[in-house]
Amino acid sequence: MQSKNSNIRFLIIMAMHDEAKPLINAMKLNEQGRINPNYTIEHYSGQTSGHTIDLIVNGRCSVYNVDQIGTQVSTLCAHLGIEKFNPNIVINAGTAGGFNSDNATIGDVYLSYPAINYHDRRINIPDFKEYGIGQYPAYNCSTITKALGLRTGIVTTGNSLDYTEQDMAMIKSYNGVVKDMEAAAIAWVAQQHSIPFLAIKSKTDIVDGEHPTEREFLQNLHIASENLARQAVKVIDWLTKEGI
Ligand code: ADE
User: Fold this and answer.
1) Alpha-carbon span 204 to 94, nearest angstrom
2) pLDDT at residue number 6
3) What is the pTM of this model?
4) Which pLDDT belongs to residue 122?
5) What is the mean pLDDT for each group of 10 consecutive residues in the chain (244 residues)?
6) Candidate of 58, 180, 216 to mutate for ligand 1, largest count of ligand atoms within 8 Å of Cβ
7) Beta strand ranges found along the chain (DSSP E)
8) Residue 233: phi, psi to the nearest 5?
9) Measured in angstroms, how far is the CA atom of residue 172 from the centroid of ligand 1?
10) Contact (Cβ atoms closer than 8 angstroms) between residue 221 and residue 229
11) What is the per-residue burial (b if ≥16 Cβ within 10 Å, else e) of 127-149?
12) Pairing assessment for the beta strands 42-48 and 51-57 based on DSSP bridges
């Protein structure tokens, strides 16, 4: 537990610029440029009530001219960010798919608890099966969720926006309710450094709903990112007051 009034260093990791913009604006963060000349990862920083915020965004792929998403860049981003900023907590803020079976609606914001898993690392050999799923621990946010009225659930990560039947069977087997493409990779790096990890995810689409995911995602990205910023500010504010 961080003592309540000392300077907490928050490292916030985000995949897409459009997801990050509302939070960067809400927290009045300043653009600082790339954190490493070889990678596109961009840094924004600021202060809140005497605490330090470092927010990094994966940046754009120079070959395909799209935001870099998924676990490959997220692992690297988390490693470089942790080494550079030595944070007290790592937060992955972003968007995700939700489930009708969990009564999720577009724009709902969830916090990761109790774990972050992978759903597309199938290794059917004793012990490797569990290794593939990961089950990385999440920061115990039960008091925050009660105070702010947010929902919690298992975040489930893979490298595809859609899913295979096997992915879905895996997600159901551990009751995953927040489907994303980054959290488990970042959670693993945070675990290696023994730093608490929390994911804050806003729903852009309903995975088991009737609409194509890619259409719903694009339609709802703006509103979900606005909700994400609103709730992420409250979560950070709560942590600055109550400690980690
Ligand atoms: N990000 C937003 N929606 C998603 C989904 N359905 N799957 C994976 N990542 C997502």
Assistant:
1) 10
2) 84
3) 0.97
4) 97
5) 75 98 98 97 97 97 97 98 98 98 97 98 96 98 94 98 98 98 98 98 97 97 98 98 94
6) 180
7) 9-14, 30-34, 42-48, 51-57, 89-98, 109-118, 136-137, 151-157, 176-180, 197-206
8) -60, -40
9) 16
10) no
11) eeeeebbbbbebbebeebeeeee
12) antiparallel
- β-bridge pairing 51-57 and 30-34: unpaired
Q: Which residue has the tokens 């972003």?
A: 94
- Ligand 1 pocket test, pick from 181, 215, 216, 221 with the greatest ligand atom count within 8 Å of Cβ, gives 181
CA distance 203 to 105: 7
**Residue type, position 28, single letter:** K
Nearest to 184 by CA among 113, 92, 95, 118: 118
18 in Cβ contact with 221 (< 8 Å): yes
CA–chain centroid gap for 189, Å, is: 13
Work out whether the CA dihedral 137, 217, 230, 31 comes out positive or negative.
positive
Place of tokens 């995911």: 213
Ligand 1-lining residues (CB < 6 angstroms): 95-97, 161, 179-181, 204-205, 207, 213, 217
* Catalytically active residues, by annotation: 19, 205
Cis amide bond preceding 114, omega within 30: yes
Q: Are strands 9-14 and 89-98 parallel, antiparallel or unpaired?
A: parallel
